[in-house]
Design goal:
Largest interface: A-B, 25 and 23 residues
Structural class of chain A: mainly beta
Oligomer: heterodimer
Number of helices of chain A: 0
Largest sheet of chain A: 6 strands, mixed
Order of helices and strands of chain B: EEEEEEEEEEE
Shape of chain A: globular
Distance between the termini of chain B: 41 Å
Helix content of chain B: under 10%
Helix content of chain A: under 10%
Strand content of chain A: over 45%
Shape of chain B: globular
Radius of gyration of chain B: 14 Å
Distance between the termini of chain A: 33 Å
């Protein structure tokens, strides 16, 4: 596609429920990244996929968070047993090389 | 270690120049980036500079890099109200054969007054 597409754009969930966030990167971009942006905070790195290499999961805050990337394209970030502190905007980005990322518009997650 | 710092707020008058500053700690950074985020939107890449350069100019934007002091700045000439946004500095540290990931600063909120 023309840009990085994320869905849903907004998600409200009850505490304790699981959520799945989807990212559709730009076609041909080999690298895909997930970041989290909390109110008043910068961007917190979560996880990074590049090609067929093992993902860099060093930023995942707990074992409730996981992500996969199927077929080198679409990625899903799953948060199990959501907590209120998980409320944030989850941003996905893709990149063809070193030239910087292209970001999606994000999914705003609110845990009530 | 990876740490990128920016001042949180900058306020300027329309038509003046804005200078947003950033410091980073990792000397192995290869590329440094400036991103802009408008309210309710994702991040938009403004410009980037390779670590062996000390200056890059792109229309109203000038990036200065002082590698010795690990200091990066973004100058916006003739600042307009449409430039009001959050500006993020980011560094890329290579990850072996991979592209590596970007580490972002906290962002500088630029407010432009008419």
């Amino acid at each position: 596609g023309a840009g990085v597409s994320q869905s849903p754009s907004n998600k409200v969930t009850e505490k304790g429920k699981d959520v799945e966030l989807r990212c559709d990167p730009i076609s041909g971009h080999t690298a895909l990244y997930w970041y989290r942006q909390s109110l008043g905070q910068g961007l917190e790195f979560l996880i990074y996929f590049q090609g067929n290499s093992a993902p860099d999961k060093s930023g995942l805050p707990s074992d409730r968070f996981s992500a996969e990337r199927t077929g080198g394209s679409v990625s899903t970030l799953t948060i199990q047993r959501t907590q209120q502190e998980d409320s944030a905007v989850y941003l996905c980005a893709s990149s063809p090389s070193w030239k910087g990322y292209t970001f999606g518009s994000g999914t705003r997650l609110t845990v009530v | 270690g990876e740490d990128v710092e920016q001042s949180l707020f900058l306020s300027v008058r329309e038509g003046d120049s804005s200078v947003i500053n950033c410091t980073y700690t990792d000397s192995s950074s290869t590329y440094l980036y400036w991103y802009k985020q408008e309210p309710g939107a994702g991040l938009q890449l403004l410009t980037y500079i390779f670590s062996n350069m000390d200056m890059k100019q792109d229309q109203r934007l000038t990036v200065l890099l002082n590698k010795k002091d690990k200091h990066l700045s973004l100058r916006i000439a003739d600042t307009q109200t449409g430039d009001s946004a959050i500006y993020f500095c980011a560094e890329r540290i290579p990850g072996g054969t991979s592209y590596g990931k970007l580490t972002f600063g906290q962002g500088t909120i630029l407010t432009v007054h008419p």
